[in-house]
Amino acid sequence: MFRDSFQHRFVTVFSSAGSKPLAIWDVHTRNGNSRRLTDEDIRSLAFELAGVNVATTYMVAPCAPCPSLSIKLPFLVLLLKNMKKFFSFEVQILDDRDSLRRLRFSNYQSSTRIDSFSTTMPLSLVPNWNHVQLNLAEFIRRTYGSNYRETVRLQIHANVRIKRIYFCDRLYTNDETPSDLRLFPIVRPNRLVQMRAQQKAAKFPPEPIESVRPPTPVQDAGVSGDQPQNELVSAAQCADGVEL
């Protein structure tokens, strides 16, 4: 399916927020149901698989008649929610010996069991949403001593809620991962809030300082107003001291 596609960094095989999330998937719900809903914890769309029997309620990619996903990226990432019920998923891999190996992960297994062409391993999930990262190449190398070539098939069983499933070429940090591939995308602030925060505070003129105005000097009625009062007083005192 993806053999002729350019596989660089990230390849998404399931997105619950897409217009056609099951475009490459077949869903089987015997004694179970499947639906898309809005999860209250992440406030985003999620696809739910629920059933009484884990083996009879599942979704598988690729859908018929395509034989293989043909994804060469070795890291598998699943954004899923722990429903506190039995849950499992399978990955079918083609190695460099042209042998099909099946890796099965489940939360109800307590030990690892390795057969000639299949391996069953326990899966530990925390409550609520989980960010599961699997190095498929490392699993194949350790269990069978061969090299990873491509992922052929992916099968998800009940009971789980899924937001996104994608493959990548290496493990990326949360800052390196694009926003749409994160479990909790970046919340962008409102543009109006940003504009208000960037506005400078209005500058108001300083309050006027009240000051006492000096009193107006009183002038003698017989003296010209052009001559200062102090000089007039001194002149009068000198005149009084002169003998005629």
Could you please describe the fold and organization of this structure?
With 244 residues, the protein is mostly beta strands. The protein has a domain at 10-170: Jelly Rolls. The protein contains three helices and 13 strands. It has a seven-stranded mixed beta sheet. Strands 1, 3, 4, 6, 11 and 13 form a six-stranded antiparallel beta sheet that branches. Strand 7 and strand 8 form a beta hairpin. The longest helix has 12 residues, at 229-240. The relative contact order is 0.18. The mean pLDDT is 85.
Summarize the structure.
The chain is mainly β and 244 residues long.
Tag the structure with descriptive keywords.
mainly beta, Jelly Rolls, seven-stranded mixed sheet, six-stranded antiparallel sheet, 3 helices
Report the CATH topology name of the domain at 10-170. Jelly Rolls
Largest sheet: 7 strands, mixed
| SSE succession | EEEEEEEEEEEHEEHH
How many strands? 13
Low-confidence stretches: none
> What is the annotated CATH architecture of the domain at 10-170?
Sandwich
Structural class designation: mainly beta
Q: What is the topology?
A:
Elements: E1 10-15, E2 26-29, E3 32-39, E4 44-51, E5 57-61, E6 75-82, E7 88-95, E8 100-106, E9 113-114, E10 118-122, E11 128-135, H1 136-144, E12 148-157, E13 160-168, H2 191-198, H3 229-240
